[in-house]
Every structure is written in C-alpha cells, then in structure tokens.
Amino acid sequence: MRADPAFAAPGRFFKGNVHTHSTRSDGARGPAEVCATYREAGYDFLALTDHFQAKFGFPIVDTRPWRTEGFTTILGAEVHAPATALGETWHILAVGLPLDFAPTPEAESGPQLAQRCLDAGAFVALPHPGWYALSTTDAATIPGAHAVEIYNHTSATRIDRGDGAYLIDQLLAEGRRVNLLATDDAHFHSDDAFGGWLMVKAGANEPGALLAALKAGHFYSTQGPMIEAIHWGEDSVEVHCSPASTVAVLGRGSRSMPAIAPGQTRVVLPLAPRMLEGGFGRIVVVDEAGKKAWSNAYWF
C-alpha cells in the first residue's frame, strides 16, 4: 500500500488557521489580540487575512512582530474584485503575499487579481463558496487556485452556508485537482473562532516551509477529529484516526464506501472497480459529536 502524500511528506503536523480578520478590516479585535488568541489556544501558525479593499486601505497586515518561538504567522489577505456569475464581488483567499502587494486597480477582474496573487507566490483558495453560491463556471475562471474551502466556520454558524463540498466534488469530478480547506473566517463579533483548521505537515513551523506544504497539498482539514495515516492500495484504503463513528471514502458522483461503528480507530475500506473508475477518492472521518475531518483527494 502507498501512504497518502500528505502523510508521507517529511516533517510533522502543525495546527493552523489561514482565514481570519481583525480591526484592520471588519473584525472586532486588533491584530495583536487575534494572534495572541490563536497562540494561546495552542495553534502553531496563523494567517491574518483582512479584506484587501480601498475602504480599509488595502491592508497586508504585518504580523511578524507577534511571532514567537512556538508560533508563527504567514502574511496574506482576502482580496476582492468584480464579479462572479451572480454579480457578486469575488472573495479570494491569498496566503503568502508580500507586504508591498499592489492595490487592486478599478479595472482588474477577479481572475486577473487571483493570477496576480499566484504570480506573487501566494497559496490561493476560493473561500466560503456556499456563502455566495460560487459556481463551477466561476471556479473555472481561476484555474490556478490551489484549494476550495470545504468548511467555513463563520458562514456555518451564522447563516448555515459553510459547506463547500457541493463545489469541490463537482470540480474533482471534472478532473480539477483542488484541495480542501477548513477555516474559521473569524471576525470575533460572535463565537466564530476555533471551529475549523488545518493540520499541515512540514519540516519546520516556519512561513516558507508551511507555504510550500500548503501548495503541495501536504495537509488535511478538521473540526476536531485527527487523521493519523492513510494508505492507498490497489483495491482498498486503510485509515487510522482518532475514535470515529463513521469513516468513509468518497468518489465521483454517488461513489462512496462507509464504515459505521462506534469508536473505530482503524478502518480498511474496499475500493470497488466503480470507485477506481471515478478517478479519485477522498476520506472523511466523523466522530460521535458529528465533527468531521477531511483529507485531500487522492488520484488513482
């Protein structure tokens, strides 16, 4: 059997959130307090991603002063430009932007802005697609995006639109190799922190190493459950995890194979020919409280 790339990568897993806001845009807490909040909660890293808009002064917040020996930050922003298929302003998550990233010109489109972020070296993701009904047509205009949010905690808790699986699975079915993010999108106007995060496997808890691991897909996403190992074989997949009530492999369309039992920590799921013909599989782990963890897709 072959170890899933996210688990075979060298290093260890670091816990982090890559979508968060402060008073530099529409958040309720200042940048120093936001960084302290995540550091004190046991996170290894944070990307503060304030809204990169003229009304906020196009902020790329310099969070370097709040790095400590055990806690680091990655610079970034949530950037915006016109317009999705529904006429909505684009929301594009860019992690790893330089401090001197140029403001958005009035004539720049969302896809053009996303490409400029990619050219600047950023990890680019499509956040909260369920919140504003992002379509596969929209996603096709940003072919370089590394990931899509499968879970956005603020959108889930405030308006029940935090799920991005509908878009991710359609993109995967089309052969688009996007990864899956769980984030807070915390603004701190309500209890919207610590609901979804990443476990990133990297050689060091250092911005460059973390950014490279994000781009490589060496991470999984979670609301709490831990995925300890995934091994893919020719006709089965083996998953090791924290105690779970359901462990499933999901593929194209309706293709799926679940194992349902209380407290299971090791599961071997058969991969029927129909699953393999779908081209990919991704793992979801659900604990007894209904909290989930998601792997990135594995391509057969």
Q: Explain this structure to me?
A:
With 300 residues, this protein is α+β, with helices and mostly antiparallel strands. The chain folds into two domains: 8-219, TIM Barrel (Alpha-Beta Barrel), CATH 3.20.20.140; 227-299, Immunoglobulin-like. Helix content is 20%, strand content 34%. The protein contains eight helices and 17 strands. It has a 17-stranded mixed beta sheet that branches. A hairpin with an 8-residue loop joins β5 (72-81) and β6. The longest helix is centred in the N-terminal third of the chain and has 10 residues, at 31-40. It is globular and about 55 Å long. The two termini are 13 Å apart.
Shape: globular
Extract low-pLDDT stretches.
Answer: none
Topology pattern, helix = H, strand = E: EHEHEEEEHEHEHHEEHEEEEHEEE
CATH superfamily of the largest domain: Metal-dependent hydrolases
Please report the number of helical segments.
Answer: 8
Percent of residues in β-strands: 25-35%
Can you count the beta strands? 17
Q: CATH top level of the largest domain?
A: Alpha Beta
Q: Could you tell me the radius of gyration in angstroms?
A: 18 Å
The helix fraction, in percent, is: 10-25%
Which quaternary structure do these chains form? single chain
Terminus-to-terminus distance: 13 Å
Which secondary-structure class do the elements indicate?
A: alpha+beta
Averaging pLDDT over every residue, what do you get?
A: 98
Describe the main β-sheet briefly. 17 strands, mixed
Number of domains: 2
CATH architecture of the largest domain: Alpha-Beta Barrel
CATH topology of the largest domain: TIM Barrel
